[in-house]
Amino acid sequence: MPSVEGGERRESGASDGDLGRAADINMAETWASLARFAGQPSDRIESVRLFVSGIPVAFFNGAMATGPSGDPARCVARAVDFMAASGVPWLLWVREGVDDALLAAGRAAGLRDAGGPPAMAWPAPIPAAPPPHPDLEIGLVDDLEGLDAHRDLMTRAFEMPRDVAEQLLVEEMVDDPGFAIVIGRVGGEPVSTAVLSVTGSTAGVYNVATPPEHQRRGYGRVLTRAAVDEGLRRGCDHAILQASTAGQPVYEAMGFVHVGRYVQLEGPPA
Known about the structure:
This protein is of the alpha+beta class. The chain is built from eight helices and twelve strands.
């Protein structure tokens, strides 16, 4: 399977389109679950998943295309109304090539281009895990203390306000079978973390966070792999994530390939 944006050819039983759609669905359902945990609304209009976190930041509220829509203008109008009811800024997410007409309808409605990250997937079969990191002890979060450690690592790694982390990452995540939080510790001190979200056979990796004082030691790569391995234990056979500029070459070296770039349009309309 060739990557969309270059790199070596990799063979897999799934096509780029299959893996890209798996990435779209996993992300849409992950955000919808976070909305449910927070007691906030989610909905669907045709192939577009709508979700609100309650946090007044566009990235945390959105409309995610998981396939082509039959009536793009209607879908955009419904998304605008849905978000207006909660009074939050938001993003329309469409992976390149999935629904160009939906993007055109969004721009026509006054939504503004806001960039977008690449979607990446690790096709099956995922090879056996490398030897463990000599310094890291990795474990699953199973209580509030562990969840709090995850929040703390996120706030420091992403410069995220603490109240946002607490509103976004709630206790219900710890016991939900579709989620897992992995934390790496050195000498008992939390140094890196990641979240797994499972949809079907897809292991979605999110919130890979290593604070600046612990970076450049390979911890983020190890925690990404730990989340993938937990997904394999739960019946997944491939993994997906959205890459940052800094993380992209790390994920490529692990075996992730490009399956398209997300286009983000920001609302409310201008």
